């Protein structure tokens, strides 16, 4: 029985419910449908009854029209509810899948925001997913299909988070979804699925990898070729892919060769490092853990140095030498340190047009953090017209006592208007962040005379960073600077106040409050930890004054922050 006419009728009844029951009397649309209903009523009694109800609604006077329309609507809905279908066309087949053991008692309404973040667009989704991960909501089996599907998300940080942190925790329970959603012609999401499938199946996924390496999209092929690096017996295929026309495939092949690490693989990687694919090969060569790979690069670097020293050609060997050094970064072998020392010991190399290579070599030398490297860097102090003075200073910081460091280098820092001065200032900034200071914990990192010297050449930021002990001269310098356009909402004023607090300036509370009350309130949009830390150092007696200042603030969030500090001070009183 066709019930299309009944759905059409329900639409008209709904329209009249909205318009008002009084509009049903003589309604043209109902009149147009009545003959068809009456004809259907000749074969089905239910249609005869509906046709009768439609006629009553059309003919009812306004006082009785509401009851007639309601009766028609109730009858129509009752009939439609009995005509629904629960089956679908097609053959019945068994459901294929895995037996999920992951389950939680999380109610769906708590799970819904996580599912929406996985399936919809908009801002804040990554934070929602990270929060759900911390709350272990991903352990609910209902999340797995959506999590696998989100590997295709256009916001790259989301699939990266799912790929690296979330999906691996499911183990084999995610395998069915990964395989069912994997497509050979897919994009980055398909490549991620392939990597996860291989992570679960290992050698059992080799057949899939071989098929993907041949028939997949560029992204899928690249992922498959790189994964073939786990199987040394696939070296011939990987070598073939290293000559592919597409650079994405060649790059993946280089990473695979890096993992295989055989003599043939090393030879091919070295060829790539010396070819047009130099940039593609640098990272795979660097990641190769085979010792002979580093020795091969070191040997070719010695040959390039000889070419530069001969003076026949500089530009091309210098570019290649720079690529070689980048591929050796982080290598712990002493042979690498020896190469760096060899380079920086060559007067012809330093005198040639190889500035980028020289900087790379000097940086790498200090990054080795080996005593012999630091001792050599210290010897560069007076060589080459003090070209490497900043590296010598940083090495000296690791090797010399604080007083000797000052005596050796301070006389050179007369001004930052010359290259030596600029280099030393830059070295002081870098050294201040040297977290691997070899000094004993009780020894200060810098001689206090540095602060006086830096104040003399008006190097304000370093004075603020290095000032530690009470010093009337430094106190006067910082006070003078602090009173130049003070603004508690600006990092410069905050930095100066922090330095004054650190050296024990006695009138610090009054200075801070005078700056706050002096007009900076309009520029306070947010208070960071350093600003709040200064406010918390106020004596308890300043609580009421700080509260009064808070009431003048424009932004409610900042006002709340200041009031919280004022309450804390009041509790201490």
Summarize this entry quickly.
The protein has 33 helices and no strands. It has helices spanning 4-19, 28-41, 45-59, 62-81, 108-119, 125-134, 144-149, 157-166, 175-181, 188-201, 206-215, 218-227, 235-241, 247-260, 263-273, 278-287, 291-310, 315-327, 334-345, 347-351, 355-367, 371-379, 389-399, 402-409, 419-432, 449-456, 460-466, 472-482, 491-502, 508-517, 529-536, 543-550, 556-572.
Describe this structure as you would to a colleague:
The protein is mostly helical. Among the domains are: 4-81, no CATH class; 108-181, no CATH class; 511-573, no CATH class. The chain is built from 33 helices and no strands. Mean pLDDT is 89; it is low at 439-443. Pfam families: HEAT_2.
Say what oligomer this is: single chain
| Radius of gyration of CA atoms, rounded to a whole number | 38 Å
Residue runs with pLDDT of under 50 for 5 or more positions: 439-443
Overall mean pLDDT stands at 89
Large-scale geometry:
flat
**Protein structure class:** mainly alpha
Report the strand count: 0
Instruction: Tell me the fraction of residues in β-strands, as a range.
Output: under 5%
The biggest sheet, with number of strands, parallel, antiparallel or mixed sense and barrel status, is: none
Q: What distance lies between the first and last C-alpha atoms, to the nearest angstrom?
A: 85 Å
SS field, number of helical segments: 33
Give the fraction of residues assigned to helices: 55-70%
């Amino acid at each position: 029985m066709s019930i299309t006419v009944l759905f059409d009728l329900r639409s008209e009844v709904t329209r009249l419910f909205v318009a008002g029951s009084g509009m049903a009397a003589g309604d043209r649309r109902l009149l147009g449908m009545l003959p068809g209903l009456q004809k259907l009523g000749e074969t089905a009694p239910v249609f005869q009854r509906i046709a009768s109800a439609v006629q009553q609604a059309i003919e009812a006077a306004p006082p009785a029209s509401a009851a007639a329309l309601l009766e028609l609507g109730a009858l129509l809905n009752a009939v439609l509810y009995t005509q629904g279908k629960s089956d679908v066309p097609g053959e019945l087949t068994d459901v294929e899948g895995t037996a999920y053991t992951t389950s939680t008692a999380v109610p769906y309404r708590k799970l819904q925001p996580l599912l929406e973040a996985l399936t919809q667009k908009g801002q804040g989704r990554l934070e929602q997913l990270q929060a759900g991960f911390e709350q272990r909501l991903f352990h609910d089996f209902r999340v797995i299909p959506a999590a696998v599907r989100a590997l295709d998300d256009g916001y790259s940080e989301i699939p990266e988070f799912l790929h690296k942190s979330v999906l691996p925790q499911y183990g084999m329970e995610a395998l069915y979804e990964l395989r069912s959603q994997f497509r050979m012609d897919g994009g980055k999401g398909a490549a991620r699925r392939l990597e996860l499938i291989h992570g679960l199946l290992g050698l059992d996924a080799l057949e899939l990898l071989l098929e993907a390496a041949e028939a997949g999209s560029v992204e899928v092929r690249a992922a498959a070729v790189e994964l073939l690096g786990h199987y040394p017996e696939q070296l011939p295929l990987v070598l073939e892919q290293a000559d592919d026309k597409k650079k994405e495939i060649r790059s993946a092949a280089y990473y695979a060769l890096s993992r295989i690490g055989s003599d043939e693989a090393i030879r091919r990687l070295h060829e790539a490092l010396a070819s047009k694919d130099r940039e593609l090969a640098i990272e795979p060569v660097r990641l190769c853990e085979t010792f002979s790979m580093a020795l091969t690069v070191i040997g070719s670097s010695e040959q390039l140095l000889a070419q530069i020293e001969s003076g026949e050609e500089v530009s091309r060997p210098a570019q290649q030498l720079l690529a070689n050094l980048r591929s050796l970064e982080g290598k712990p072998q002493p042979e690498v340190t020896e190469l760096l020392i060899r380079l920086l010991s060559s007067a012809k190399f330093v005198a040639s047009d190889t500035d980028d290579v020289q900087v790379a070599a000097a940086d790498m030398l200090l990054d080795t953090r080996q005593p012999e490297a630091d001792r050599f860097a210290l010897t560069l102090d007076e060589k080459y017209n003090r070209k490497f003075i900043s590296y010598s200073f940083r090495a000296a910081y690791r090797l010399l006592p604080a007083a000797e460091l000052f005596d050796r280098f301070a006389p050179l820092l007369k001004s930052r208007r010359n290259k030596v001065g600029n280099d030393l200032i830059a070295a002081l900034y870098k050294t201040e962040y040297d977290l691997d200071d070899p000094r004993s914990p009780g020894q200060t990192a810098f001689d206090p005379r540095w602060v006086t010297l830096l104040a003399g050449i008006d190097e304000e930021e370093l004075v603020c960073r290095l000032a530690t002990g009470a010093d009337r001269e430094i106190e006067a310098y910082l006070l003078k600077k602090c009173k130049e356009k003070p603004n508690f909402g600006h990092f410069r004023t905050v930095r100066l106040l922090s330095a004054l607090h650190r050296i024990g300036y006695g009138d610090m509370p009054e200075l801070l409050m005078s700056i706050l009350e002096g007009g900076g309130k309009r520029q306070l949009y947010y208070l960071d930890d350093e600003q709040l830390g200064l406010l918390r150092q106020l004596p308890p007696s300043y609580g009421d004054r700080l509260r009064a200042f808070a009431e003048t603030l424009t932004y409610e969030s900042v006002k709340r922050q200041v009031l919280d500090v004022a309450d804390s001070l009041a509790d201490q009183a």
